[in-house]
Design goal:
heterodimer; A: 508 residues; alpha/beta; Rossmann fold; Ubiquitin-like (UB roll); five-stranded mixed β-sheet; 21 helices; 41% helix; 16% strand; B: 159 residues; alpha+beta; Glutaredoxin; 2 domains; 7 helices; 4 strands; 43% helix; elongated
């Protein structure tokens, strides 16, 4: 009997380890040889811990499970009160286009044979058979853009690095997923780490790099453990090392753990951090593609960008490019979070409206109260009111609303949210996390908190001052932390003026 | 300035740690993580040892150590409770949990209770945004916290 229990952080936080222990204990008690496979999560967080049993070639789900629900699994699974039926048939799963996350929640993340049995390594094998320039052009043609938030075309970045001669080049994976409301990088690394390793190896082949770094945040202990183990197994199996899969590609990856600085998700801060320095932003130019880690040409890509490359190489650029809208091609793993009934990870082609995401897919708020605002794209993303929920999910579509998709985190707030408090938090967060290099961010964020406090005390004259400050931060900051803090602040002010006026009335 | 007693054998242990990571490019962060794992914090006395071994100034090592939120200059309490302060957890009631915990412990963020039982730390996102409010207690991940669950946790820990 094969029983699948997630090892994913969210599942563990909701009790998956206790459920796995109960499964082992119950199997032992009944003398049934049970193989417990710890998997990633399917992404249906409201059903976690979601236990699955293989039955006639299909995976039957049970959830959310408690240790007390376990014994009945061994009686008649079909009659189990928490039976959900075949997992693939659940509406949440059927509506998705799971490409990057195809294996997450399905396979044993640390089994390379499981990985290969589910299509793993086919992309890398194809890449190794191609001319490196052809690999770059395949990624260019796919239309893949940076999933970390900036949306820069991945293939163009690779072409730049490929075109520079250097004694050493690096592939750096940005796994410093600090945006609130995002957990796709974590889920991918916990659920399918070989996919990231494969994507990085393809990148190395394409640009001629021989060393890679994965900069993973310290707040993700499960991901750190899984990825460290996956690296060891990849080396043992020859997926990393002097001759990758027996080819002439020499490539290895080192895992670096961050130390709690949000700004290190900015690519130049991240490079400084790997170098052992303060995570201070670097001025650009020079571009990291030309002078990056230790001054060498460096590809810096987000986890999801790199993990989307294997499927592009496996199935071809055209297959990937045919999904999506406008200049946003392929799929995007939406992370639906905050006050929602059904939260989790939902991978779909670009183009879904916020209304579909928030109401149809997420089922509205968990509290049952009306939705007041949705913050898309993390702490630097805009707050959007329901009147804007028809916007299609895409890079340009959001930019047109003075918003950004960022890393595709979607945080839902009900009508108890105070948008002045949210704007103040955005400034406070920027002040706490500023690297301190540029004045608009370092000083501006502190002044921003003070200015919003004046507005809260009823000083309406401070509102134009806040707008001016946001303009200065936006235009004058070196990186997105100071530059984009204006998005949540101004969107709160523009879309929810009552929350900024209410206090004035109270003071009068 | 420094009331910390220097742990015996500190310099030797730090030199061992530095030697373990000597082959890495840019080894300072892994070294600081390891020193903190060994001593529970990064003792002041470790900094000149690291600086000398890596051919850096003490100021550079101090600058790096103090830049990152993870590295402590003082030991933490017997238990460390981290509560997520970020937006997704705010949307699901995180502020109320934080307020209850701060009142219960009588400390603010980064504070340690007078009896040394618990240190309260803010964290900005644990990636548990669809099951918040989230936290971490001595490395154990926590989801769907509410004031009552936090109270039970602290009571169980003897705080």
């Amino acid at each position: 009997m094969k029983i699948f229990v997630p090892l994913d952080s969210a599942a563990v936080a909701l009790g998956a380890d206790a459920v796995a222990a109960a499964v082992a204990a119950e199997a032992g008690r009944r003398g049934i040889p049970a193989e417990i496979v710890r998997t990633g999560s399917r992404g249906m967080v409201w059903l976690e811990p979601l236990v699955e049993i293989e039955h006639e070639g299909r995976r039957i789900g049970f959830g959310p499970m408690t240790p007390g629900d376990v014994p009945a699994l061994f009686d008649d699974p079909a009659a189990h009160p928490k039976s959900l039926g075949p997992v693939e048939d659940l509406p949440w799963m059927r509506r998705q286009t799971r490409l990057t996350f195809a294996r997450v929640g399905v396979i044993d993340p640390l089994s390379l044979s499981d990985y290969e049995a589910h299509g793993g390594l086919e992309g890398l094998r194809r890449a190794l058979a191609l001319d490196p320039a052809a690999v770059v052009e395949e990624v260019v043609a796919s239309g893949l853009r940076g999933r970390g938030g900036a949306g820069f075309p991945t293939g163009i970045k690779w072409r730049t690095v490929a075109g520079v001669a250097a004694d050493r080049k690096y592939i750096v994976c940005n796994a410093d997923e600090g945006d609130s409301g995002t957990f796709a990088d974590r889920m991918l690394i916990e659920g399918d780490p070989f996919c990231l390793i494969e994507g990085m190896a393809i990148a190395a082949r394409a640009v001629g790099a021989d060393r890679g770094y994965v900069y993973l945040r310290s707040e993700y202990p499960v991901a750190i453990r899984v990825f460290g183990e996956a690296l060891a197994r990849a080396r043992e199996a020859g997926l990393l090392g002097r001759s990758v899969l027996g080819s002439d590609l020499s490539f290895d990856i080192e895992l670096r753990v961050g130390a709690g600085a949000y700004v290190c998700g900015e690519e130049t801060s991240l490079l400084n951090s790997i170098e052992g320095k303060r995570g201070v932003v670097r001025a650009k130019p020079p571009l990291p593609a030309l002078e990056g880690l230790f001054g060498r040409p460096t590809v810096v890509n987000n986890v999801i960008s790199l993990a989307s490359v294997p499927v592009i190489l496996e199935r071809g650029a055209a297959f990937y490019r045919d999904i999506g809208i406008g200049r946003s091609r392929g799929t995007i793993p939406l992370q639906i979070a905050g006050n929602v009934k059904y939260g989790g990870l939902f991978e779909a082609g670009f183009g879904l409206s916020l209304s579909e995401i928030v109401h149809d897919i997420a089922g509205g708020t968990a509290s049952g109260r009306p939705v007041k605002a949705v913050q898309v794209g993390g702490p630097l993303g805009a707050y959007l009111p329901p009147s804007r929920f028809d916007v299609a999910f895409g890079y340009e579509e959001y930019a047109a609303l003075d918003a950004l998709i960022g890393h595709a985190g979607i945080v839902v707030f009900d009508d108890t949210a105070d948008m002045l408090a949210q704007a103040r938090f955005a400034m406070e967060f920027c002040a706490i996390e500023s690297c301190g290099k540029c004045t608009p961010c370092r000083i501006g964020a502190v002044r921003g908190v003070e200015t919003i406090d004046r507005i809260a005390r009823g000083d309406a004259a401070a509102i134009p001052l806040l707008r001016e400050l946001c303009d200065t931060m936006r235009a004058g900051s070196l990186c997105a932390l100071g530059g984009f803090t204006s998005y949540p602040v101004l969107s709160a002010l523009d879309h929810f003026p009552d929350d900024f006026a209410r206090q004035r009335e109270a003071a009068e | 300035m420094n009331a910390q007693a220097t742990p015996p054998g500190l310099a030797d242990r730090v030199r061992e740690i530095v030697a373990d990571y000597a082959d890495l490019e840019g080894p300072l962060l892994p070294i600081l993580h390891e020193v903190q794992a060994a001593f529970g914090h990064v003792p002041q006395a470790a900094l000149p040892v690291i600086a000398e071994a890596l051919n850096l100034t003490r100021a550079e090592v101090f600058g790096v150590m103090t830049f990152y939120h993870d590295f402590r200059s003082e030991p933490a309490g017997r238990h460390v409770l981290k509560l997520c302060r970020a937006e997704a957890c705010q949307a699901s009631g995180g502020d109320a949990v934080a307020a209850a915990v701060r009142a219960r412990l009588g400390v603010d963020w980064h504070g340690t209770t007078r009896d040394g039982a618990v240190t309260l730390e803010p964290v900005f996102c644990l990636g548990l945004c669809a099951c918040g409010p989230a936290g971490m207690f001595d490395g154990r991940l926590l989801a769907r916290l509410d004031p009552a669950a936090a109270e039970a946790l602290l009571t169980e820990a003897g705080a």
